[in-house]
């Protein structure tokens, strides 16, 4: 199994080091290791039927062929998606910079200060623009953000929990579809109404408005909001951040919550995503916020420091009682949007907004001057024109496309035109020609300026924003490209990402994101395509997606795949929703029980609740497997009620459970379906197929197994794969028109990053993918064996082997020394490593996953660090140091501490900063000491602190 071609670049160990590692384990081949590690009962019987592996040049050429089939037009469709200029300095130094896109979620804040500051910029910008007190960082897309706001209103409004949620009929259609599906599953009563006619009678739990509306209308909602609140409702406004620079923001109109997308702040269209959505709330609701929230705290010496606050990973802690199943965010895109705000500042954003509005206003005036009818005369960037006949509307759409412009077909007789920061006078003139307002397209575009007005707005004066926003110095001090380049470099240097070091996180698979895989995502033929562009203009995208879905179906052993879910948690939700809808289609209304092992990912339980299922926990046996006796008892206790079981395979304990087929059989016998969580698919590809050994549905994490980078916490893609009988219940590209409710706003979710996974599969081929899995097993078992005498592995399989990750048990050491697993995590920073996964799935342990991409030199460097740390723990056990005196308890050690004039610690400066000799030349210093998390939660601050906060 010697890797060749690109596989040899992707897989870290070469032939010689592979032989060395196998020798330590007592095997003479990878095949022998696999035979002992992977139960024979689940092994697939034949090789994967995938196209032969391509070279890097061939892969890029194939991607060029896909891209060339897409037609790049001027996109004036709008509907929540707008072309934007990504400043080149941000594109090169964030989107295309591995220091940013290979970073992990900032759960270890001391090594994440750069990305946390960038996300805090985003939060501050969003809160300021929406006129509310606090914003998160971030959500997945606008429609699901609206759904999260509805859930927030229902749980926060205790007095009206069971009452209706009223939704403005002038909401984007994709939001309406997603929201309706979520509400039905969660048992929430929705009622769509015409806001222009006032609120209907009856009790109200919450109100959802859109500003500007789907029609483009900008309306003073303050009276409606006031009435709703008087009647005991909470109010959410879906809004546009650019419009908020000119229009009275939701908070100032009285709203409790604002949601939306930050896409037009420098993020490409990406055929629908990934785009960072946002949610902002008034004071008092911050502890109800879903997703991630960056807060300001302090380190051990009192220096200002950032961390994730409050409900971080709450779905892993609260499980079925969690308020959201959001795990992945869109962190990388939130960084881009936040930096766009930093680069332009409030005055720059306002200039952009004024130009966009002025262009839309000029177009509206031209339409009216020619006798045309507008749907609304109060708007920001979207003008809708009502025609007499279907044929007339069709002629206009076709005429605009013929001159290179895509307009929106709103309905049979309505055409929509949306302007944006990329719109030129020439393009406006071409639109005017398509509308029949001028007689030839070749007339000088400057002549269109004659109808552009200045001065007043095309909405009531009462809605003109007068309040200040983005007043923090960060939005006023970075203007030149030199400043921005250095600011981005300075923040990146504060972090540890995969471009510096191995990130040995169990359950998270931080592997190589190859440059060739990443290259195509910013090509205009992929990045500049609107998600609702005509189908004949997007053939390249569609062919790539179909091919990717087919490859994923082959790998997993299922018959169909949908890539629409834009995060792993959303894939879970989509899979469970498919199961629930399947039972309902058969009249099995009572099948509402979802069995979930105690060791499962926390999002499993929260996703099940959102899908309308009741969680029943199945116990874990002493060896870490599912307790079959308890499984039988739970099945017997719920006759004819079992909807599904959710299994992570290999298990969350990092072990191949040999009785997985038996588990699947017992659930099937009880009439239930088997959901196999694909989070650990990196241990299965080419060796076993979930759809073959008992699964009915699985979600996959393209941001884990299939090389989409984590981006500091997102983007992610969580495709859902199903067996034949569940195909009709997949979320589909026609946004639910076939009966399956969509789980994301765009037809293909976060399509913009799909070329990454397609490239990975094309480069690796069937043999390369199988070798990658084998090497993932090799690395994990090698670490487990090498560290066995220092940190025992908690769970192993029948032959004493693990899968692609191992759980190191520190609990006895903690009892003897007082040194905790968290202390070890912080000390690893001094050795230049990101910590393994802490306290999951077992408290007091560390879960380690090296992935196939790490070579033996890096693996040995990690082992050296862990052995040295074990020796430091032994010093405490032997009484040479008290736990509170140990470098483990004081870790990490920033440079400012190491070089301080006063040093009164029980160990030397050298031991603090350079515990092994290899660090003397290449040393990462964290910017802060250990952060006081409790302080940040007690004194919650979630916006940029003033400069003086950094002065000690």
Automatic annotation (TrEMBL):
Its cofactor is pyridoxal 5'-phosphate. The glycine cleavage system catalyzes the degradation of glycine. The P protein binds the alpha-amino group of glycine through its pyridoxal phosphate cofactor; CO(2) is released and the remaining methylamine moiety is then transferred to the lipoamide cofactor of the H protein. Its EC number is 1.4.4.2. Belongs to the GcvP family. CDD domains: GDC-P. The glycine cleavage system is composed of four proteins: P, T, L and H. It comes from Nesterenkonia flava. It is an enzyme of class 1 (oxidoreductase). The modification N6-(pyridoxal phosphate)lysine is found at residue 704. It catalyses: N(6)-[(R)-lipoyl]-L-lysyl-[glycine-cleavage complex H protein] + glycine + H(+) = N(6)-[(R)-S(8)-aminomethyldihydrolipoyl]-L-lysyl-[glycine-cleavage complex H protein] + CO2. This is Glycine dehydrogenase (decarboxylating). Residues 772-893 form the Glycine dehydrogenase C-terminal domain. Keywords: Oxidoreductase, Pyridoxal phosphate. The keyword Glycoprotein does not apply. InterPro entries: GcvP, GDC-P_C, GDC-P_N, GDC_P, PyrdxlP-dep_Trfase, PyrdxlP-dep_Trfase_major, PyrdxlP-dep_Trfase_small.
